[in-house]
Specification:
Helix 3 (136-145) runs antiparallel to helix 4. The protein is an alpha+beta fold. Strand 6 (120-122) and strand 7 form a beta hairpin. The protein contains 4 helices and 7 strands, in the order E-H-E-E-E-H-E-E-E-H-H. It has helices at residues 32-43, 81-94, 136-145, 158-168, and strands at residues 15-23, 48-52, 56-58, 68-77, 109-115, 120-122, 125-127.
């Protein structure tokens, strides 16, 4: 190589992330299930969508009266968690998400649940997601995608966490 020849860019290895998607309000794509489908397609602009769960319905948390459509996706991207969060927030804004009341109605909600790098803490972001261990609407679909993935904080597999949440619910 001569000194004038630029070096090829250094490829950054892809990192795997679990992204939770939720919607309980119509948007420009239609009903919440259609918003989830459109958001999943948009995630492909961030990297490779390796797998995705079916969309499931769940009861709302907090003051909202509207049921949610939820899904999870496994994506690979070279971005670090903080950079990925910025890009996810941009997607939320493009879908019409506005800052507002916590747990209120929303066109789309995109959360980083886990990443293959383990735990991450920075201003405005904690990975793994602080509440994912108690949310069946995240754990049940996630157990179908990556049942053996371990929570870096507890050491439990996703399958084990999903079973714990399921056991907490009263049986009929």
């Amino acid at each position: 190589m001569s000194p004038a020849t630029p070096l090829p860019p250094i490829a950054r290895p892809a990192t795997a992330y679990v992204i939770a998607l939720g919607s309980n309000r119509r948007g420009r794509h239609g009903a919440p299930e259609r918003e989830i489908a459109a958001a999943l397609a948009t995630l492909a602009t961030l990297g490779d969508v390796v797998a995705r769960s079916p969309t499931v319905a769940s009861a709302p948390l907090g003051p909202s009266n509207r049921r949610y459509a939820n899904a999870v996706a496994l994506i690979e991207t070279p971005e670090d968690p903080a950079t990925l969060l910025v890009r996810l927030k941009q997607i939320e804004r493009r879908f019409g998400r506005r800052a507002g009341r916590r747990w209120g109605s929303r066109v789309i909600d995109l959360d980083i649940i886990l990443w293959s790098g383990g735990a991450w803490t920075s201003s405005g972001l904690v990975v793994p997601h602080a509440a994912f261990r108690t949310r069946g609407f995240v754990l049940a679909p996630l157990a179908g995608l990556v049942p053996a993935w371990r929570d870096p904080r507890t050491g439990r597999t996703i399958r084990q966490l999903a079973q714990l949440v399921d056991r907490r619910r009263p049986r009929d």
